[in-house]
Fold:
Amino acid sequence: MNVVPRFPFSAYPSGWYAVGFSHELAPGQLVARRFMGRDQVVFRGASGAPAMLDAHCPHMGASLVRGGRVDGDAIRCPMHGFTFDRDGTCIATGYGTKPPPTCRARATRLVEQAGIVLAYHGGAEAPAPSWQPPAPDLTGFTPLRTHTFEGLATHPQETTENSVDLGHLSVVHGYREVKILEPLRADGPYLTTRYQMSRRGFVPGTPRIAAEFTIHVHGLGYSFVEVDVPSHRMQSRHYVLATPTDGEHIDLRVASCIRPTGGPLRHLPLAVVDQTVGRLAFKSFLADVSQDLQIWENKTYVHPPPLAQGDGPVGRYRTWTRQFYGAGG
Structure:
């Protein structure tokens, strides 16, 4: 067995990563984020679109988060009044003079979809994105319920691998009768597979739930699972969003929503469905994720793993992930 240090690849793989949920970013608000080893400021300007810049003014280093303010679609430095647009261009000084041409804040490309704000990280080899995750159709679903696990000592390579590690589903989460319905398929930065299982009900003493899971993985930072429960006439969407903050930690954002497909619940207002079934479903989802946290934070990375029948397509997943590390690993 070849046990290698944690981790034998870049802490910052390329791809799209969540830097917040839409409801966390009100117009005019400044939010501090640690992203790929850099301090950032995220804000929503007058146009409604979010933006993210380096958190310190490139003029003389003042914090744009502490004391800065949103001015239209730009952000104004508290020290000298230098103002930067969403692309990082200095559009004004505090003195009414011409901005220095070299005074530019580093900007990160963002997209906002389905209530999630995503930032692109490409590194030197791919500074501009050639792809982005498609926006899922959430028509008829309840609003997203969200939670963030901050500062986990792990890597997106590990958290995303859980989606194809079928063996741990029964051992860690108590799933039963796990069966692959569609084999793993990879297409560029996209990976998908489909399986079925049964699990305990949301409420103790209720019948077990039989469900079908379709996994959608877009890079190492953006995954969502379509869950269909025909017996309960219910569908849910679960999001797992792992974002590197520094070389050793990630913030793990999770979210879920549900949609009745028939039965009495279909005739109820979504707010009522959310407060009843949605609340219980999200509580169960958080419990599942919490069972993984201690394992992620304390495991080392074994490669290649001596796989056994029942592990799932872990080997194919690891081959697929190489594209996000570039030539330097």
Q: What stands out?
A: The CA atoms of residues 41 and 55 lie 5 Å apart. The longest helix spans residues 270-298. The chain has two domains: 27-120, 145-324.
